[in-house]
């Protein structure tokens, strides 16, 4: 073969590899749709549980679809998550199921995926409805009502307090819809019960930041009776701050996610309650909906999934 032609063919092959076009050949050969699960930080036990649930579902249904799972190291690394979606577009997957790190910033790249013929399903953290409408894009949300879940935890906490008691909230990332909804749910319950919310600050979902925020809250408010945290990673940090201040038993803590580390603390009575949004099933719900859309089409519609209050009694 002519050396020049050989070089051209080689260049084309390398280009295809770089853009993921050769990778997509697996979809054609297998005849199965390829679904990409794009998550937030796999350093967070919640998302590792989500990934394990998705892999378990794929193992039981491997004849039906192929699965790719990816996630970012830092839950706030929005730019890297955008790159992951770009990569999935280049690989020409059939569907993307995404737990976005930001409720707005990931919308443009997900719209790009849809324009490329890829089905997109939003899980865990809901995209901003107004921004979706302004960009004329429809992405169904499959997931829980976070405000409802936080209200369940707040109502349970209120039964352990006295009207007028001082409480504080440690919020998730302010650019995340689920963080906003959980804060609102905590506020709903506390205001309805007549509690005094003396502080509400973000710790961006992180344990170490929550530890520092909680420590400062405890110093600023010596009569603080409870700290409500928007996820379990942060409640672990708050719990350590309570212990360091010698306030174990005096300051109650509430979380959200029901990760294994918090289950142990619940059983030991160190954390009052958490909320289970069923991490092991959340991605599965999204994958099943994506497969349904691929096979049946139709207008994308949101689907609400369950949230449950978890207390020590329920874990016995």
From the structure above, extract its key features:
316 residues; alpha/beta; Rossmann fold; 6-stranded parallel β-sheet; 4-stranded parallel β-sheet; disordered N terminus
Describe the structure in brief.
Helix content is 48%, strand content 18%. It is built from 13 helices and 12 strands. Helix 8 links the parallel strand 6 and strand 7.
* Total count of strands: 12
**How much strand?**
15-25%
CATH superfamily of the largest domain, please? Response regulator
Whole-Å distance between the termini?
A: 73 Å
Arithmetic mean of pLDDT: 91
- Return the CATH architecture of the largest domain: 3-Layer(aba) Sandwich
Oligomer: single chain
Overall description:
With 316 residues, the chain is of the alpha/beta class. Residues 1-29 have low confidence and may be disordered. The strands form 3 sheets. A 6-stranded parallel β-sheet has the order 2-1-3-4-5-11, sandwiched between helices. The chain has a 4-stranded parallel β-sheet with strand order 7-6-8-9, with helices on both faces. A two-stranded antiparallel ribbon has the order 10-12. It has helices at 3-19, 25-30, 45-60, 78-90, 107-115, 129-134, 146-158, 177-192, 207-220, 232-244, 260-267, 279-296, 312-315; strands at 34-39, 66-71, 95-98, 119-123, 141-144, 166-171, 196-202, 224-229, 252-254, 273-276, 303-305, 308-311. The protein has 2 domains: 3-141 and 282-299, Rossmann fold; 146-276, Rossmann fold (3-Layer(aba) Sandwich), CATH 3.40.50.2300. The radius of gyration is 22 Å and the shape is elongated. The chain contains 13 helices and 12 strands.
């Amino acid at each position: 073969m002519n050396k020049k032609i050989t070089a051209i063919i080689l260049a084309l092959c390398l280009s295809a590899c770089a853009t993921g076009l050769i990778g997509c050949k697996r979809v054609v050969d297998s005849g199965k749709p390829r679904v990409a699960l794009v998550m937030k930080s796999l350093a967070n036990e919640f998302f590792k549980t989500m990934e394990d649930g998705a892999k378990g579902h794929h193992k039981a249904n491997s004849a039906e679809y192929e699965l790719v799972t990816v996630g970012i190291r830092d839950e706030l690394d929005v730019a890297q998550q955008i790159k992951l979606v770009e990569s999935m577009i280049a690989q020409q997957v059939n569907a993307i199921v995404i737990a976005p790190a930001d409720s707005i910033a990931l919308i443009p790249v997900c719209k790009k995926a849809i324009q490329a013929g890829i089905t997109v399903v939003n899980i865990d953290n809901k995209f901003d409805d107004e921004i979706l409408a302004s960009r004329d894009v429809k992405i169904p949300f499959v997931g829980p009502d976070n405000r409802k879940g936080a209200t369940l935890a707040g109502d349970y906490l209120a039964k352990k307090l006295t009207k007028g008691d001082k409480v504080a909230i440690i919020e998730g990332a302010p650019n995340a819809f689920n963080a906003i909804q959980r804060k609102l749910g905590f506020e709903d319950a506390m205001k309805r019960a007549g509690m005094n919310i003396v502080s509400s600050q973000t710790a961006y979902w992180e344990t170490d930041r929550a530890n520092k925020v909680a420590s400062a809250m405890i110093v600023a408010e010596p009569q603080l009776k409870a700290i409500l945290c928007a996820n379990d990673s942060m409640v672990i940090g708050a719990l350590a701050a309570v212990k360091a201040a010698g306030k174990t038993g005096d300051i109650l803590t509430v979380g959200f996610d029901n990760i294994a580390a918090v289950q142990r603390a619940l059983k030991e009575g160190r954390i009052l309650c958490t909320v289970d949004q069923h991490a092991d099933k959340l991605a599965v719900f999204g994958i099943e909906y994506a497969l349904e859309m691929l096979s049946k089409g139709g207008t994308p519609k949101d689907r609400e999934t369950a949230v449950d209050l978890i207390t020590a009694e329920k874990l016995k």
